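Order emerges. One example.
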Amino acid sequence: MHNAEHVEIFDTTLRDGLQVEGVSATVEDKLRIAEQLDRLGIAYLEGGWPGANPKDIEFFHRAGRELNLATSTLVAFGSTRRPKGKVDDDATLRNLIEAGTEAVCIVAKSWD
C-alpha cells in the first residue's frame, strides 16, 4: 500500500558529501555526524565504501561497536563484482558483508 505521507530519506553525507574538494572528516567526525543524522530521524545513513581506504575500514569497525542508532540504519556502499570476476573472489563484495551493516547500497554500471 502506498503511503504518500511517509517519506524515508537516504543520506549520503558520510560518503558523497565528503568527496568535495577541501572537505575532510576524521573517523570521530563521521561517527558524530552519524549520531546527529540519527537524531534528525534520517532513515538510512550511507557510511562509505568499506575497504576503500583505512578511514572507512576504521569507521565501519568502530560504528559496529560505538554507534547506538535509534532511528537510522547504517548502510555500506559498494559495487557489483568486477567484469569476468567471480562473486566468491570479489574483495568489494566481501568488504560489504564484513562491514556488518543491516543494509548495503550497491551501484551497478552497464553499457553496450
In short: Helices lie at 27-39, 54-66, 91-98. The longest strand covers residues 73-79. The chain has three helices and four strands. Residues 14 and 30 are 6 Å apart (CA to CA).
